[in-house]
Amino acid sequence: MDIPARTSVLQRVPFFGGLEEDQLATVAREAHERPLKKDETLFQQGEEATHGYVLGWGRLRLDQTTPDGQNVVLRYMGPGDLVGTVAVLRRIPFPATPVALEDGLALSWSAPRLAELMERFPKIALNAIGVIGGRIEELQARLQAIATQRVERRIASTLLRLANQSGRRTEAGVEIPFPVSRQDLAEMTATTLHTVSRTLSAWDQQGIVESRRSSHLVIRHPHRLVEIAEQG
Amino acid sequence: MDIPARTSVLQRVPFFGGLEEDQLATVAREAHERPLKKDETLFQQGEEATHGYVLGWGRLRLDQTTPDGQNVVLRYMGPGDLVGTVAVLRRIPFPATPVALEDGLALSWSAPRLAELMERFPKIALNAIGVIGGRIEELQARLQAIATQRVERRIASTLLRLANQSGRRTEAGVEIPFPVSRQDLAEMTATTLHTVSRTLSAWDQQGIVESRRSSHLVIRHPHRLVEIAEQG
DNA sequence: CACTGCAATTGCTGCAACGCAAATAAGACG
DNA sequence: CGTCTTATTTGCGTTGCAGCAATTGCAGTG
């Protein structure tokens, strides 16, 4: 990918928001490219955070594993998202593992480079605060949801969030354009794949969603889900 | 409080870490003082974030209320903690309400002042990233706990965390030096006050904790709690 | 000192959701 | 085209925990 191409990717990255075209070009020049194949991991939870990444295209799932082997899906990430950069800035090991859901490409900068960039462009540090703050908000929202809502409602909210973040409009409804297994949904909503399966089956029969095996999820009637999410 | 006194408070604030004595004095000079009485709120969730605060002394409980009236305790805060500052930097309304658990004092800076300080001392922006990152970590840990552990274990972990953050060693064990109601614990561990009550009663009878009505919580045998927390 | 109000305790009941297990379907691969 | 593997469905039994309600105990107030 040449520098102008990289630059245009970086233009859509909030982390670099407010930088001039030529400044972005500078940033772009100093990046390394890291191609990603489906199912590949960008790095491993626990590794030393030597590089920070920006996802150019593709999709990632961010997994966190507990000491006793349980898994939690922290978030899904798409083009323009920051991956692992917070860990680099805080000088702590990566707290989670990003897994590629499809082929993609990430741009990376080494830890010293990042520090240098932030020093040269103070705007970046402010942007970082905004990005991280957004994640805090999201985490707090999920915490609240898990703490106070019951499973059906959480699943509905999660589907709607996925649809808003990455849904594609089709004649049949809103489609979620990457594979999401029952296990994934279970780990996102803090329940079991059994319960997710039952819930989706029920919704499928009611015509709210289309969730046949192995095809992408389609939400036929988002407003029905909204009803469930808002007050179940 | 005079400037040297303020300065010595700020020395223990990670947000201002790495600043020179005279720089801290500058920061201190530009602060406003805000005395706090027990049960008073520093600001209200939803208000515009015009000022950022640092807690000089005293203790706060940070509450978040859902649209439907449910309450979640986000965290307890003590001297040196940052309150509401993230919201100021992100230019969003305060996402939660800090309630004073005892008389205390906060220092505050207006939004423009804070922006100016960060510009003048870029180190502050980096510190902010560190502080916020720490909160993300804590939130993720809680998310994991709620998602994968059962109630007894979560209560044990929460008590241990409180003890580590603010516990005082006494002959009887480790004391938590501010009042924590069953309701509070319930909101922290995502359960009901009933279940918390039952659990603490059981532990009290087993001699693990001392949790009589209206006296401060005392953890007699932290290691027993650790056992419960680590593998229940 | 009695009264009032709030926090905590505790027994009981019901249910949402978990866990197991067996059946089923669908891709993947040779 | 058959076989293997993996994801999903679904029935059934179990249970952790919430929800309700009645009681108790403590603290502050007049």
CATH architecture assignment of the largest domain in chain A? Sandwich
Greatest interface (CB-CB under 8 A), with counts per chain = A-B, 36 and 36 residues
Structural class of chain A: alpha+beta
Rounded mean pLDDT score of chain A: 91
Strand content of chain A: 15-25%
Assembly level: homodimer
In words, what does this structure look like?
- By secondary structure, chain A is of the alpha+beta class.
- The first copy, chain A, has two domains: 143 residues, Jelly Rolls; 82 residues, Orthogonal Bundle (Arc Repressor Mutant, subunit A).
- Chain A is built from nine helices and eleven strands.
- A four-stranded antiparallel β-sheet of chain A has the order 1-7-2-5. A four-stranded antiparallel β-sheet of chain A has the order 8-9-11-10. In chain A, strands 4-3-6 form a three-stranded antiparallel β-sheet.
- In chain A, a hairpin with a 5-residue loop joins β3 and β4.
- In chain A, α6 crosses α7 and α6 crosses α9.
- Chain A is globular.
- The first copy, chain A, starts with a helix and ends with a helix.
- The mean pLDDT of chain A is 91.
- At the A-B interface, α3 and α5 of A face α3 and α5 of B.
- Chain A binds a DNA duplex (30 and 30 nucleotides) through α8.
Summarize the model shown:
The structure is a homodimer of 232-residue chains. The first copy, chain A, has 232 residues and is an alpha+beta fold.
For the structure shown, list the relevant keywords.
9 helices; DNA-binding; alpha+beta; Jelly Rolls; four-stranded antiparallel β-sheet; 232 residues; Arc Repressor Mutant, subunit A; homodimer
